[in-house]
C-alpha cells in the first residue's frame, strides 16, 4: 500500500481558457460564456447555427453508437455551444435509457481528457463539485519511490467510488490519513468522470420547460429512431461475458442459493433460474454445475434441459425467464427490493439496470468458459 507524504503546494488556481471550456462544457464558466452570447432556442434555426446543431446531433449519435463523445480540437466555440443544445435534445427524446447512455458517453469523454490534462486542471474541475482536493506526493511502502497524485476528502471518495467493485477501490485498500484518501491522477479522473455523469443525468431528467422548433424535433426523432434500431445490439454489448451475482434480482438470488444449498427446486423455479443464467452470460456448462449439488441431480437430464432452454436442442429457441407478474403468481417472487419497485417488470430488466452501476470482474462471478 502506498504511503502518503506531506502535501505539495497546490499552486495558484489556473484561469480556464476557451479550449478548457470546450473540453469541459458543463462547468459554470462555460454556461456563463453561452449566456453572454445571448442565444435563444428560437434563434437556433438560423443558418449560422447549422454547424452547432449538426455537432449537437453528432454528440448524441456518437453516444448511441460508440458510448463515447469525441472532442473536436480547433472548434472551441462549436464544442461549447453544442453541449447545452445536445443536453436539450437528449432530454427531449423522453427515453430514460438513451438519456443515461448520453450522460455516460459524455463522462467517458471527460475521463479521456482529464487523464491527459494538467494536474491543476483536475483540481479546478474538482472544485466545481466542492471536493476538498490537494496535489500530493504518494510514496511507495518502502519510501524508495514516489509518484505525483492527489488527496481528496473522504466524503467525495465514498460518493463516487461506491459503484466500483474491484478490490483496488475498497477503502481498506486505499492509503488514507486524517480523513483524506490518496489517489493517482488516473483514479481522480475516473471519480470526476462519475461526478460528471451524475451531474448530466440530473440535467437530463429535470422537468422539460421548453419547446423545440420543428427542425430540431425532427433531429430528435431521427436520433430516437436510431437508438431504437440499435437497442438490441446495445443490450447485447451491455451484457457481460461474466455473470455478476451482485446484480441478481431477489428471486434469482433465492433460486441460486437454493440450488447451491442442495435443496429441491420446482419445475418453474428450475426453468426461471436456468433461462436467467443463460441470458446473463453464463455458459451451459456453468449452469449445469449450479444444479450439480441438488439432491435429485441427473447429469443426462440436466444437460438436456439446459441445452434445450439455451436453444441448442428442439426448436432451437433460446428461452427467457418469465415476467415478474408470472413469478409472483407462482410464488417464486420472495418480495421486492427498491430496484424492483422502480417499474421493473422482468428479471432481466432488473439485471441490466443493476449492471449499469456494477462493473464486472468482482470475486462473486462465474467466469465464462471457452
Please characterize this protein's 3D structure.
There is one protein chain. With 370 residues, the protein is of the alpha+beta class. Helix content is 52%, strand content 8%. The chain is built from 15 helices and seven strands. The strands form two sheets. A five-stranded antiparallel sheet has the order 1-2-3-5-4. A hairpin with a 6-residue loop joins strand 2 (133-139) and strand 3 (146-153). 30% of the residues are buried. Mean pLDDT is 83; it is low at 1-13 and 360-370.
- Report the major sheet: 5 strands, antiparallel
Highest CATH level, the class of the largest domain = Mainly Alpha
Shape: globular
Fill in the CATH topology of the largest domain: Transcription Elongation Factor S-II, Chain A
Reading the helices and strands in chain order gives EHHHHHHEEHEEHHEHHHHHHE
Can you count the helices? 15
What proportion of the residues is helical, as a percent range? 40-55%
Named at the architecture level, the CATH assignment of the largest domain is: Up-down Bundle
Residue-averaged pLDDT: 83
The helix-and-strand class reads alpha+beta
Largest beta sheet: strand ordering: 1-2-3-5-4
- Stretches where pLDDT is under 50 for at least 5 consecutive residues are 1-13, 360-370
Domains, number: 2
Strand content: 5-15%
Tally of strands: 7
Gyration radius, in Å: 25 Å
Between the first and last Cα atoms, what is the distance in angstroms?
35 Å
Amino acid at each position: 500500500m502506498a504511503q502518503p507524504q506531506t502535501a505539495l503546494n497546490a499552486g495558484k488556481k489556473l484561469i480556464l481558457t476557451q479550449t478548457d471550456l470546450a473540453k469541459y462544457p458543463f462547468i459554470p464558466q462555460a454556461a456563463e460564456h453561452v449566456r453572454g452570447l445571448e442565444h435563444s432556442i428560437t434563434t437556433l434555426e438560423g443558418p449560422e447555427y447549422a454547424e452547432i446543431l449538426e455537432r449537437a446531433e453528432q454528440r448524441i449519435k456518437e453516444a448511441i453508437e460508440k458510448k463515447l463523445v469525441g472532442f473536436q480540437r480547433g472548434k472551441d466555440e462549436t464544442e461549447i455551444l453544442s453541449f447545452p443544445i445536445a443536453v436539450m435534445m437528449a432530454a427531449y427524446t423522453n427515453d430514460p435509457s438513451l438519456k443515461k447512455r448520453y450522460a455516460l458517453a459524455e463522462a467517458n469523454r471527460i475521463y479521456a481528457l482529464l487523464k491527459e490534462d494538467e494536474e491543476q486542471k483536475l483540481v479546478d474541475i474538482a472544485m466545481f463539485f466542492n471536493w476538498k482536493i490537494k496535489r500530493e506526493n504518494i510514496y511507495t511502502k518502502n519510501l524508495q519511490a514516489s509518484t505525483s497524485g492527489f488527496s481528496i476528502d473522504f466524503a467525495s471518495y465514498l460518493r463516487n467510488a461506491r459503484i466500483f467493485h474491484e478490490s483496488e477501490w475498497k477503502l481498506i485498500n486505499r492509503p488514507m490519513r486524517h480523513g483524506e484518501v490518496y489517489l493517482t491522477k488516473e483514479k481522480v479522473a475516473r471519480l470526476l468522470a462519475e461526478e460528471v455523469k451524475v451531474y448530466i443525468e440530473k440535467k437530463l431528467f429535470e422537468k422539460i420547460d421548453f419547446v423545440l422548433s420543428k427542425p430540431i424535433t425532427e433531429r430528435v426523432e431521427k436520433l430516437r429512431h436510431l437508438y431504437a434500431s440499435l437497442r438490441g445490439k446495445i443490450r447485447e454489448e451491455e451484457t457481460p461475458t461474466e455473470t455478476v451475482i451482485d446484480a441478481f434480482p431477489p428471486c434469482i438470488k433465492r433460486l441460486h442459493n437454493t440450488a447451491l444449498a442442495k435443496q429441491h427446486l420446482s419445475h418453474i423455479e428450475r426453468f426461471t433460474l436456468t433461462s436467467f443464467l443463460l441470458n446473463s452470460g453464463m455458459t451451459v456448462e456453468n449452469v449445469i454445475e449450479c444444479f450439480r449439488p441438488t439432491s435429485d441431480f441427473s447429469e443426462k437430464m440436466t444437460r438436456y434441459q439446459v441445452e434445450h432452454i439455451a436453444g441448442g436442442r428442439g426448436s432451437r429457441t433460446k428461452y427467457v425467464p418469465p415476467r415478474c407478474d408470472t413469478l409472483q403468481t407462482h410464488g417464486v417472487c420472495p418480495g421486492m427490493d427498491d430496484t424492483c419497485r422502480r417499474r421493473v417488470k422482468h428479471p432481466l430488466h432488473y439485471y441490466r439496470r443493476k449492471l449499469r452501476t456494477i462493473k464486472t470482474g468482482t470475486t462473486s462471478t462465474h467466469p465464462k468458459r471457452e
